[in-house]
Amino acid sequence: MTSSTAEPAVSVRNVYKAFGKRPQEIVRQVKEGAERSDLTHLGTAAVIDASFDIPPGQIYVVMGLSGSGKSTLIRTLNGLQPPTDGVVEIMGQDITAASPAELRAIRREHLAMVFQHFALLPHRTVAQNAAYALEVRGESKEAQRQRAEEALAMVGLDGWGDHRPDELSGGMRQRVGLARALAADTDIMLMDEAFSALDPLIRRDMQTQLLELQKDLGKTIVFITHDLNEAIRLGDRIAMMKDGRIVQQGTAYELVTQPADDYVARFVEEIDPASIPAPGGAA
Ligand SMILES: Nc1ncnc2c1ncn2[C@@H]1O[C@H](COP(=O)(O)OP(=O)(O)OP(=O)(O)O)[C@@H](O)[C@H]1O
């Protein structure tokens, strides 16, 4: 486990993201105490005052119901949707102040994304899909092939490199999505509902595989889910979102034993604290 005193891999400071014609005005009014529900005539306050640091090597899970702001929050981390207000730092670099060229470089070097619906290119082989980030970087065909094969082996898909995505099951396609992120060899992986489209047993296998890989690779992972059991299984820390706000963040044990409010308490009421690793204790 990486020391929590290390410089954060991801640092999010008072981030707001609003949609609509006048996003700045929405943020201004929210800061003055307006309720999100009173501002719908102006647009949507999708993320409100999010702050957290993720030390290198940790899995940080963002969880919450549909519409709570999870996807918007993760998109502020890779600059796909820049925050309306606040600062995001990736490996110490402020992406909110970066030029488009700097942002592209930060993304290329540090960030890989795994999506719910795989986002594979159908006319390319599995190996070409896995190597996509390396192709974009202009690496040699040989380097692409080698890294793709290594990454496919890591996710249990050795020998599948020459197949097309439509010859694979859903679980296998998601492994290709994961291999593509691993081949990119970035410090940080952003995973948006990455396992949510999979059948329960395959989903559990993927969680196990991710935890196994994580032991060796020590990536920093931001993992979005609406599934509490997945959050508990994967997260070193969990942020619970509601209506755009992070209402609590902590270890699974903290959320279950010391819920910050009734909302979190209701969310976690089915979970037996004895089933969760206590801080410093065994699983
Ligand atoms: N591009 C957009 N334009 C306008 N409103 C948006 C946009 N993207 C998201 N929203 C709104 O922001 C709020 C948060 O959406 P977001 O997709 O981040 O939530 P979520 O927790 O990821 O939900 P889900 O699990 O359904 O994906 C919602 O009210 C949504 O309608």
TrEMBL record:
Record has ATP-binding as a keyword: yes
Keyword field contains Plastid: no
Keywords associated with the record: ATP-binding, Nucleotide-binding
Sequence ranges assigned to domain ABC transporter in this UniProt record: 10-268
Pfam families in alphabetical order: ABC_tran (PF00005)
Gene3D superfamilies from the UniProt entry: P-loop containing nucleotide triphosphate hydrolases
InterPro entries: AAA+_ATPase (IPR003593), ABC_osmolyte_uptake_ATP-bind (IPR051921), ABC_transporter-like_ATP-bd (IPR003439), ABC_transporter-like_CS (IPR017871), P-loop_NTPase (IPR027417)
UniProt GO molecular function: ATP binding
SUPFAM superfamilies, A to Z: P-loop containing nucleoside triphosphate hydrolases
Protein name: Glycine/betaine/L-proline transporter ATP-binding subunit
Originating species: Nesterenkonia lacusekhoensis
